[in-house]
Amino acid sequence: MTTTHTPTATKSAAPPPRSVLRSTAFLRLWTGTTASGLATWALPFVLGLAVLHHDLGAAGLGLVLAARTAGFLVAVAIGGVLADRHSRRTVVLWSALAAAVAAPLLAAGLGRSLVLMTAAAALAGAGQGACRPAFQALTAETVAPEHRQQANAAMTMAVRSSTLTGPALTALLAAFLDIGTLLLGIGLLWLVAALVPGKGTTGTTVANQAGAEPAPRAGFRAEFLEGIREARRHPWFLAGLAALVAVIALGYSATSVALPLISRDRYDTEWVLAAAMTAYTVGALGGALVIARCRPRSQGWAAFAGLAAYGVAPLSLMLPVHPLVVVAAYAVAGIGIELFNVPWFTATQREVAPDKLARVSSLDFLVSYGLAPVGLALIAPAIDAFGFTPVLAVCSAACFLVPAAAALVPTARHFARTAPATTD
């Protein structure tokens, strides 16, 4: 039996760059990921502008966005399996190209065919869903372990910056371009996501390791279940998933529904809504900057504390406080969410078996994104039945208590099976 060794000792290897931002391979990946994130954010915003321009009705908007979500949820599971079966770079290419093709189809159907727009939105969601776990796994292949936290922070900062500046930029472009042209621009962003990233450089593609005998493949269902079994090997991951579900389905959903109503009814102004959402994004940017350099000794506990900080947002909406208190609470929530997200993604890339990373990542996206619409659908009727205060109190308590309980799970303290070695 022959083995093939990685040719790392033939020449003295160049030392890794001090900053991941000096790596061309990472910058290409960062550009592609940022383009996909911006395209993902921009589509519902541009479709909302189409409603304002009377090119699309409100009911049609709901149908198109629902089709997009359905396409995402179906494809994210499939994409996880495919990204572990095949080259992650190839999965990114074809999924992003699918989303790019959807953009001109949306433009063609605008004002003409709701059926075409619905089908195109499902295709766009499928492309978005399939590329998410592939991008996560490709990050692990491209970036050395010691730089992954910085890399994940850089990526989330790009997404948050797009969210902060995107509305103003899109509104400005809409003054000069029609909705169809803006949709074609979203397609160009997906082309950047498809074509710019390179292949992984620090690790081998798990589907095609040099010298490895091709193993017979199990069916799709068996491979997806294998990813679930891998996730179950990591109690900290399951605990974090449960905490995410509580915060997204209860805390985030409650504030999404309650904040616009409270801004209108209690404070009699839209300023509170705009300022709170801006503060959340700015806080998230600050959190990403901090965690890019900070390495807490107990990173899991620190991450769960950050996630629990989201509870201050629904708590601030319960009480008749000054509007600046609401804005400050949202800033704290934004800081905390990135203090969780970046170590969470980094730990998943470090701890999960490389050949199952995409499937475990797809499980993360499937659960967190899949349950968010459920929370949004239930919160409004709950508020109508019980009022703001009881519902927000329950949601705030869940945001505080579920991450605290998750932090008590074995292996949660360090997001790892064993504590990291420390040097004094």
UniProtKB/TrEMBL annotation:
Major location category of this protein: membrane
Protein topology in the membrane: Multi-pass membrane protein
Keywords in alphabetical order: Cell membrane, Membrane, Transmembrane, Transmembrane helix
Pfam family of the protein (one): MFS_1
Transmembrane segments: 27-52, 58-83, 90-110, 171-196, 236-259, 271-292, 301-319, 325-345, 357-379, 385-409
Subcellular location(s) of the protein: Cell membrane
Domain of life according to the entry: Bacteria
InterPro entries: MFS, MFS_trans_sf
Protein's name according to its UniProt entry: MFS transporter
Organism name: Streptomyces griseocarneus
Highest classification ranks of the organism: Bacteria, Bacillati, Actinomycetota, Actinomycetes, Kitasatosporales
